[in-house]
Amino acid sequence: MNITDVRVRKVTKEGKMKAVVSITIDDEFVVHDIKVIEGEKGLFIAMPSRKATDGEYRDIAHPINSGTREKIQTIILKQYEQAMAEAEAEEAAAEA
């Protein structure tokens, strides 16, 4: 499995959710609404979920094993950090 595209949309309001991400797998399958969240131990991802009738949230799509989750999270957070650095550079250039 190769993640062939990552699209990061920054969340402008304050809070723990920092961005919403879409990934494309093998140029054939897209997963939307992966959230980048600021936790106590740093950034992590939350897969798309839906609130069940019992009030619990359940993932709609998710990796089967922790190795795959780690691979996806590493790629997404790398792209998120790059997008934030580019946004800061653009803001600095606009202020200059």
Outline the structure in words.
This protein has one domain: Stage V sporulation protein G (Arylsulfatase, C-terminal domain, 2-Layer Sandwich). The model has no long low-confidence stretch (mean pLDDT 93). The chain has one helix at 66-95; strands spanning 3-10, 17-25, 29-39, 42-46, 49-51, 57-59. The chain is globular. Helix content is 31%, strand content 41%. It is built from 1 helix and 6 strands; from the N terminus they run ββββββα. A hairpin with a 6-residue loop joins strand 1 and strand 2. It has 96 residues and is of the alpha+beta class. The longest helix is centred in the C-terminal third of the chain and has 30 residues, at 66-95.
Order of helices and strands: EEEEEEH
Helix content: 25-40%
Number of helices: 1
CATH architecture: 2-Layer Sandwich
Task: Indicate the structural class.
Answer: alpha+beta
Task: Give a count of the beta strands, DSSP E runs of length 2 or more.
Answer: 6
Give the strand order, joined by hyphens, for the main sheet: 1-2-3-4
Provide the number of structural domains: 1
Assigned CATH class: Alpha Beta
**What is the CATH topology descriptor?**
Arylsulfatase, C-terminal domain
From the spread of the alpha carbons, the general shape counts as: globular
Instruction: State the end-to-end distance.
Output: 43 Å
InterPro entries: SpoVG, SpoVG_sf
Pfam family, one: SpoVG
Keywords: Cell cycle, Cell division, Septation
Family: Belongs to the SpoVG family.
Write out key terms for the chains shown.
31% helix; 96 residues; Arylsulfatase, C-terminal domain; 1 helix; alpha+beta; 4-stranded antiparallel sheet
